[in-house]
Amino acid sequence: MMVTEGSTVNVYLGGNTTLPCSLQDNTEIFWIGTNGNQAFVTVMSLLFILDGPIPEPSEIHPQYKGRTKAFSSSTNTHSLLLMNITEADLMLYCCMDFQLKQHNCTKLDIERNRNG
Question: What are the structural domains of the chain?
Fold first, then answer.
């Protein structure tokens, strides 16, 4: 699947940000990260348990354990809170539904202060 950049969010190292996601699905949604070389890391997957309205996080990548929270609602919003951001986190993040071939992507970039 070809991944294209969507919006860009500027962040401070050590800070937190919420990555938006709006997909219609009722099975599984994946949050992935890529550094632009088309090498993907699965940050976490969200599974809908017993056809419930809100998915549960599963398979969280060790690099993100304790630093992520998923916020899902019955209105097809599946945002990801990324906390204590490091330089290694500055990449393109996509929420994806492989079954329906949908994705939303957001690029994290460093927030530079005005003085340089």
Answer: 7-110 (2.60.40.10)
